[in-house]
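Hi V.,

Quick status before I head out on leave. The structure for the redesign project is tokenized and pasted below; the design run finished overnight.
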């Protein structure tokens, strides 16, 4: 039985004061039990979010460097995140791959570094519109999974969270149909299960891409869809709460 997982990816939104206001509204309304809830604020708000969230909500960073320390100006390491109480990290988001050149090779180093430090990685994978139209979705995802997970032994795969995020659905208002999400996430699960059947059962795989209060329940009701990674609709506490409740 996999516990559902809903994460709010705020991207480069919300100051510390805005983070405080969001959490002051969300936290008292969160249902007991229910899905694991994670918020992913920008770096300056992480420590305050950890203080405010306590045990009910985990806090994730949106990126990290694979080395624990070194001459890497502008970067933040996994042990630094763990020291302030961060519990998870988004890796391989398509915006980081596209705008900041995050490569599969770097991800293959970041994933073991995150796990070694005690962070739960949320690995994002997904195809672009041209690749889907050309029938290349499965090949693209397989290539990403092979490359990104090359540094992890089979016994570590079950501890991951994977987010299937079709690039054509991110921030576009165009959501994958529940059938597309289910079918594609089943492909990801089968790939992981081929390396380890236990990991295939245990790994949580989320859908991300224009998830909203009115489409979340149907997407998450699919058997292989374990939750959602939410961008735009996670910026309003009431919208995000509705998605958490749908899960
Ligand atoms: C995301 O940034 O991971 C995302 C899924 O964004 P949106 O929900 O806005 O499409």
């Amino acid at each position: 039985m996999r516990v559902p997982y809903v994460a709010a990816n705020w991207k480069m939104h919300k100051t510390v004061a805005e983070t405080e206001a969001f959490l002051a509204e969300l936290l008292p309304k969160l249902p007991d039990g229910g899905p694991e809830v994670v918020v992913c604020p920008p770096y300056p708000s992480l420590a305050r979010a950890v203080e405010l969230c306590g045990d009910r909500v985990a806090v994730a960073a949106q990126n990290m460097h694979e080395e624990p320390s070194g001459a890497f100006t502008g970067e933040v390491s996994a042990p630094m995140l763990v020291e302030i109480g961060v519990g998870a990290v988004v890796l391989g988001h398509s915006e980081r791959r596209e705008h900041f050149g995050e490569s599969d090779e770097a991800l293959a180093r970041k994933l073991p570094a995150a796990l070694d430090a005690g962070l739960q990685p949320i690995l994002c994978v997904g195809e672009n519109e041209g690749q889907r139209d050309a029938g290349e979705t499965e090949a693209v995802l397989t290539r990403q999974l092979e490359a990104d997970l090359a540094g992890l032994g089979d016994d570590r795969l079950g501890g991951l969270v994977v987010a299937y995020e079709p690039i054509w659905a991110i921030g576009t208002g165009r959501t994958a149909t529940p059938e597309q999400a289910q079918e594609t996430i089943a492909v990801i699960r089968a790939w992981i299960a081929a390396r380890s059947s236990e990991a295939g059962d245990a790994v949580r795989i989320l859908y991300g891409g224009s998830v909203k209060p009115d489409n979340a329940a149907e997407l998450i009701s699919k058997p292989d869809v374990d939750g959602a990674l939410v961008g735009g609709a996670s910026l309003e506490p009431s919208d995000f709460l509705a998605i958490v409740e749908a899960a």
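Above is the designed sequence. Residues 9, 11, 165, 170-171, 208-211, 229-233 surround phosphoenolpyruvate (CB under 6 Å).

G. will cover questions while I'm gone.

Best,
W.
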